[in-house]
Amino acid sequence: MSELIFFRPFFKQVLWGGHKMRDFYGYDIPGDDTGEAWVISANPHGQSIVRGGTYDGKSLGELWEQHRELFGGMEGAEFPLLVKVLDANDHLSIQVHPDDDYAFLHEQGGRGKTECWYILDCDQDADIIIGHHAKNREELEQLTAEGRWDDLLRKLPIHKGDFFYIPSGTVHAIRRGTLLLEIQQNSDTTYRLYDYGRLQDGRPRQLHLRQSMDVITCPYIGQNTAGPVTARRGYEICTLVDGPYFTVTRWKIETEASLEQSYPFMLIDVLSGKGTLDNAAVKAGDHLLAPAGYGTIHAQGTLELIVTHL
Ligand code: ZN
Question: 229-309 sits in which CATH class?
């Protein structure tokens, strides 16, 4: 009988980090400048480690290398997804990611990145940058060259529970006062468009203007990918995105629900509440993987889950 696999996050301290992950989830963060928790990661720059069970102490990367049966024998050199929690105590730089084709050609066979964000909590007046207002490539180049960022960047107010799908080529930035869950292709390829003119150790951080101009989708096409909320007895579900790289569904469980794990693997992020998944106790801040062939997961309790599969 296969088991649910729980992870311990890899934490990253950064200039823009905070301590909300301790406040909200009780994580044993390394400092009050913790900006990132890589909660389900096989990325060589920061691996999640299995907590308890048969594989206790192994990294997700080791599971991928040594126990491919847990992933239904999937092909691929690298585990395809990466899940993080981000706590932004300051504005992050404005970025864009290439698609797979551009990354392969220009980043030594690298991978592109499509990602999505679920707002876990935010300040009352918090906002976010998704997309831009340039009508065509000429206007994009011009507004960038003239540094007219307020005219160029598409800024939106945000609220807890908002979801944003960010396909490769979409300009995006997290802003101060935001705690979010990020689900993405497992890739590090990022082009920085603008960093508010800030200095780090006395110098501006490197920008990638040429690459950004190459890959930014123009004009920006907004997409609301979320489907309707479907209420069932004991729970409700909503498909937030059903895309080429991942499908993400939100489950709000009041009493109980059954989840079918019929994919190569399924990732489950527990956003709030507490309860059980089969015989495992779960609470807000838990992140786990249900392996291939697991079958039905019986959830009980009051739980908000984000469920991701390929
Ligand atoms: Zn990004």
Answer: mainly beta
